[in-house]
């Protein structure tokens, strides 16, 4: 959870103080990020839809480390879109830009912490509620469909 929060904060600060200008100067970079992000989301959706229930007592899956979770934010198209959109919408121009950008960053840190905690709690609860293999499969297919549907949002702006 700290890696996601730290990584997103680093991304937001990077966009606020320079990387966002690259997208303005070189729009192809943004398009490339959307395409790579979409390909990853399709792959991720396929993996979700075709995954099988595992016996947690035998599971060898490890959660992301702090650095992996943090680094993932820099290839996460949703994080990029949110950073760019928030800074474009909520910052002031001129001499007030830096202070308004820092306020946006502080607000997003709070929102990210609350969101990640809710996401983790929801994941734990869902894991406890999905008792049958059928329920697990229906849930995963639904999540995969929603993931694929979210790709369209990357190309609507």
Task: Give the mean pLDDT.
Answer: 83
* Shape summary: globular
Percent of residues in helices: over 70%
The major pleated sheet works out as:
none
Distance between the termini: 29 Å
Query: Beta-sheet strand percentage?
Result: under 5%
User: How many strands in all?
Assistant: 0
| Uncertain segments | none
What is Rg?
Answer: 18 Å
Q: How many structural domains does the protein architecture include?
A: 1
- Work out the helix count: 6
* SSE-based structural type: mainly alpha
- Helix and strand run: HHHHHH
Structure description:
With 157 residues, the chain is mainly alpha-helical. 78% of the residues lie in helices and 0% in strands. Helix 1 runs antiparallel to helix 2, helix 1 packs parallel to helix 3 and helix 2 packs antiparallel against helix 6. The protein is globular, with a radius of gyration of 18 Å.
Question: How are the SSEs ordered, and which strands pair?
Answer:
Blueprint: H1 2-25, H2 27-49, H3 66-72, H4 77-90, H5 97-129, H6 133-154
Helix pairs in contact: 1-2, 1-3, 1-4, 1-5, 2-6
What structural keywords apply?
globular; mainly alpha; 6 helices; single chain; 157 residues
Summarize the structure.
By secondary structure, this protein is an all-alpha fold. The chain has helices at residues 2-25, 27-49, 66-72, 77-90, 97-129, 133-154. It starts with a helix and ends with a helix.
């Amino acid at each position: 959870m700290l890696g996601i929060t730290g990584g997103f904060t680093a991304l937001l600060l990077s966009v606020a103080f320079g990387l966002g200008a690259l997208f303005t100067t070189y729009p192809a970079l943004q398009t490339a990020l959307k395409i790579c992000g979409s390909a990853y989301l399709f792959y991720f959706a396929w993996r979700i839809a075709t995954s099988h229930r595992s016996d947690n007592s035998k599971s060898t899956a490890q959660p992301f480390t702090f650095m992996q979770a943090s680094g993932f934010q820099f290839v996460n198209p949703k994080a990029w879109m949110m950073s760019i959109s928030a800074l474009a919408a909520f910052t002031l121009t001129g001499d007030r830009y830096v202070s308004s950008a820092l306020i946006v960053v502080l607000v997003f840190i709070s929102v990210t912490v609350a969101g990640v905690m809710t996401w983790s709690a929801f994941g734990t609860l869902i894991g406890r509620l999905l008792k049958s293999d059928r329920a697990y499969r229906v849930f995963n297919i639904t999540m995969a469909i929603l993931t694929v549907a979210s790709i369209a949002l990357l190309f609507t702006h």
